[in-house]
């Protein structure tokens, strides 16, 4: 992959970070790192915390484009993208509909299943769901999680039926929509996707080895014990197969710019399963897209410039007659 060497004139750039979601802490770290990287490359970049400032004030900042370093609700789910469309401010990452669908784990699964892509079986849970029936369908252990949160927030690995009520209650604190998902025992992988010149490319896979196989919020963002292996150690044929699935999953949702798909490679038969897609991945020191980009020959600063160059809108403004 070619490095970015051309110095572009991006105008005044806003780096949107912070926000109001449960992932605010991570977004603050991502945004500061992105802004520093852009400034180091001579970009007129400015931080804008959408959690501390009214997003409606964005138009008054006269940004020529923005880099979205927001994670979770109100930043990754189509809400901010819709506002930026109204303001005619080009932004990085996926558009309104793709962002909304990718944030919804149930909708993502429905689309992937319709495309014939492998993803773990699931059941949408309600307060009056028959947990015994759910377990009969999915088996134990299983995963219970909110449908619209990331970073493993509100997630429980349920090993016995007595845990189901508490698992549902925890997930419900984050979201009114909750799902139970078949647990796949296997290797945890992630596939970053980056577009250059409008063509999405799958970056090298990363294998995640977390302490006690527990890739929770702490181990994901703040632990130095979690190992990220890139190269991942798989043979070329298997890595290519998983990358192909990831690209198909990305395109099925209509994403653009970049993204990251989490994957499980089942131990019993080496079959891969797509778990979910992050349309605004983390950009911290522990984040995975920068690691994969570096393995592909792209520095953190070059990655930020590549993403900034891709900033666009869903709808092209018609010229006034």
TrEMBL record:
InterPro entries: ATP-grasp, ATP_grasp_subdomain_1, D-Ala_lig_Van_CS, D_ala_D_ala, Dala_Dala_lig_C, Dala_Dala_lig_N, PreATP-grasp_dom_sf. Its cofactor is Mg(2+); Mn(2+). SUPFAM superfamilies: Glutathione synthetase ATP-binding domain-like (SSF56059), PreATP-grasp domain (SSF52440). Residues 109-309 form the ATP-grasp domain. GO terms for molecular function: ligase activity. Its main location: cytoplasm. Pfam families: Dala_Dala_lig_C (PF07478), Dala_Dala_lig_N (PF01820). Its EC number is 6.3.2.4. It is an enzyme of class 6 (ligase). PROSITE patterns: ATP_GRASP (PS50975), DALA_DALA_LIGASE_1 (PS00843), DALA_DALA_LIGASE_2 (PS00844). Keywords: ATP-binding, Cell shape, Cell wall biogenesis/degradation, Cytoplasm, Ligase, Nucleotide-binding, Peptidoglycan synthesis. It catalyses: 2 D-alanine + ATP = D-alanyl-D-alanine + ADP + phosphate + H(+). It comes from the Bacteria. The keyword Zinc does not apply. Pathway: Cell wall biogenesis; peptidoglycan biosynthesis. It is found in: Cytoplasm. PANTHER family: D-ALANINE--D-ALANINE LIGASE, D-ALANINE--D-ALANINE LIGASE B. NCBIfam families: D_ala_D_alaTIGR (TIGR01205), PRK01372.1 (NF002378). Belongs to the D-alanine--D-alanine ligase family. Cell wall formation. This is D-alanine--D-alanine ligase. It comes from Oxalobacter aliiformigenes. The lineage of its organism: Bacteria, Pseudomonadati, Pseudomonadota, Betaproteobacteria, Burkholderiales.
């Amino acid at each position: 992959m070619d490095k970015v060497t051309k110095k572009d004139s991006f105008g005044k750039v806003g780096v949107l970070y912070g926000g109001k979601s449960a992932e605010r802490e991570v977004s603050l770290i991502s945004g500061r790192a992105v802004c520093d990287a852009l400034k180091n490359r001579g970009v007129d970049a400015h931080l804008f915390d959408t959690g501390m400032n009214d997003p409606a004030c964005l138009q008054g900042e006269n940004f020529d484009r923005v880099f979205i370093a927001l994670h979770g609700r109100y930043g990754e789910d189509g809400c901010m993208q819709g506002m930026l469309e109204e303001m005619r401010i080009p932004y990085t990452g996926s558009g309104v509909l793709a962002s909304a669908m990718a944030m919804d784990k149930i909708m993502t699964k429905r689309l992937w299943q319709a495309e014939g892509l492998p993803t773990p079986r699931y059941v949408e849970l309600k307060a009056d769901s028959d947990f015994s029936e759910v377990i009969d369908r999915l088996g134990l252990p299983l995963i219970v999680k909110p449908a619209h949160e990331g970073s493993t927030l509100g997630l429980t690995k349920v090993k016995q039926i007595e845990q189901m009520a508490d698992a549902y209650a925890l997930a419900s604190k984050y979201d009114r929509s909750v799902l139970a998902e078949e647990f796949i025992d296997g290797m945890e992988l992630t596939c970053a996707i980056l577009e250059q010149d409008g063509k999405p490319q799958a970056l090298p896979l990363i294998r995640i080895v977390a302490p006690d196989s527990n890739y929770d919020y702490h181990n994901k963002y703040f632990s130095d014990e979690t190992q990220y292996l890139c190269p991942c150690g798989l043979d070329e044929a298997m890595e290519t197969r998983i990358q192909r699935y990831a690209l198909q999953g990305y395109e099925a949702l209509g994403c653009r710019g970049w993204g990251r798909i989490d994957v499980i490679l089942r131990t019993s038969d080496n079959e891969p399963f797509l778990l979910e897609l992050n349309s605004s991945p983390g950009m911290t020191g522990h984040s995975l897209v920068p690691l994969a980009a570096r393995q592909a020959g792209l520095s953190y600063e070059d990655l930020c410039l590549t993403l900034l160059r891709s900033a666009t809108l869903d709808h092209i403004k018609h010229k006034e007659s």
